[in-house]
Write a structure and sequence with these properties.
The chain is 20% helix and 19% strand. By secondary structure, it is of the alpha+beta class. A hairpin with a 5-residue loop joins β2 and β3.
């Protein structure tokens, strides 16, 4: 079994990358892939071969809980 760590090239992550249905038409989004042992890899869709960030189940649960509770809402309103 391959050991995935932060910075692993996302192109080496086998499996399906998933993105939100609300992703922009030009493909600017974050994509996620399920890894062995419940881990999750995230990548920038504009750089699909770039580095992946790898999170444990507990880390993803904590992040998603924060998203659901609005803790990151201020990031959505940043000037671009």
């Amino acid at each position: 079994m391959q050991k995935f760590t932060n910075g692993t090239p996302a192109s080496l992550v086998a499996g399906e990358w998933v993105k939100s249905r609300k992703s922009e038409v030009n493909g600017t989004c974050v994509e996620a892939a399920q890894l062995p042992q419940g881990r999750v890899a995230l990548r920038n869709s504009t750089d699909p071969g770039g580095p992946a960030l790898v999170f444990t189940t507990a880390e993803m649960e904590a992040f998603l809980d924060g998203v659901k509770n609005g803790e990151f809402d201020s990031f959505a309103s940043l000037n671009q």
